[in-house]
Amino acid sequence: MNTAPEDLLLPGGGASITSLPKVSLHDHLDGGLRPQTIIELADAIDIDLPETDAAALGDWFAEKSDSGSLVEYLKTFDVTTAVMQTKEGLERVAREFVHDLAADGVIYGEIRWAPEQHLTRGLSLDEVVEAVQEGLDAGVQDVSYAGHSIRVGQLVTAMRHADRGLEIAQLAVRHRNNGVVGFDFAGAEAGFPPSRARDAFDYLAQNLFPTTVHAGEADGLDSIRGALFDGHALRLGHGVRIAEDIEIDSTDNESTYVTLGLLSQWVKDRQVALELSPSSNLQTGAIEAWGDELIDHPFDLLYQLGFRVTVNTDNRLMSNTTLSRELALLSDTFGYDLADIETFQLNAAAAAFLPVEDRMALADAISAGFEDV
């Protein structure tokens, strides 16, 4: 297993965030590779890389990802997906992914990835899903042998620009008893609304299969509407731009009034989970309407108003981050304490694509872990 990440503490030298039980809902498989693994896999299949030293390659990803544009950010995935085209490569990446989650204190993780992007060396859609599941299962077993416990599930993703939505939805449902817990819709958001894949989302609804949709990241409120009403989304991938539907007015006597629009009220009232990823949202320009620093992120506004906010990494390699680091950054910026961090984990547990009994058990495990601090 990988060595444990740096132990991160709450501001003021408080509790260890790294050791707290956590839930990860929005974490891309092709965005979480170890730089050294990329180098070794690339060498095995004769692929050229921009850097051949692990530290330098990690820096390259961080630099290229910090562009302020989702389209530019996504170009870095050309490198990671290139080394994930064989059974061996997929299994290794998935196995190490579980190791790294467990080292960061994650006890339940949903791992999203797009099988259609891993077919260039002859594997079929079903074969790549099976390879990833074998890697995930091996990682869970490794973690168990090391004395830790983690549960993981696949979110099979369709790329919105590729128009293979129904085929990928059928793939996801086909593997619902082999580790796939949900469906995701991702890629360049603007210009590729969920309505383009309405047949896929209708098929998923007919088969009672849960869906999350990337929306409210690189596009605005219409994208979120499409995710909810065309995509039947139970969660919003990022969803940060729902804050565009919130009006804040200050009066002369310094009172502040907040008014929610119909869409934001709907999302709040129905507790549609927001899969917020603070560092990534800065890198891709998702919060540029409010500023370009973490203090400008509407995360705290949404939290204080009672939205079901969750904290995620999005892509640990590109953002050079972990879930513990994201929580530490938020705590440092907004003054969150242990109770706030527990709330974020309970929000994520409630939104997990698990049976209700399993969600309740997950919530109990989280609460027990926080009580032990």
TrEMBL record:
Domain Adenosine deaminase, first and last residues per copy: 21-367
GO cellular component entries: cytosol
E.C. numbers: 3.5.4.4
Keywords of this entry: Hydrolase, Metal-binding, Nucleotide metabolism, Zinc
Cofactor: Zn(2+)
Magnesium in keyword set: no
Enzyme class: hydrolase
GO MF terms, alphabetically ordered: adenosine deaminase activity; metal ion binding
Keyword field contains Metal-binding: yes
GO BP, one annotated term: adenosine catabolic process
Highest taxon of source: Bacteria
Any one Pfam family match given in the protein's UniProt record, by short name: A_deaminase
Similarity remark: Belongs to the metallo-dependent hydrolases superfamily. Adenosine and AMP deaminases family.
Database matches in NCBIfam families: aden_deam, PRK09358.1-2
Entry protein name: adenosine deaminase
Originating organism: Homoserinimonas aerilata
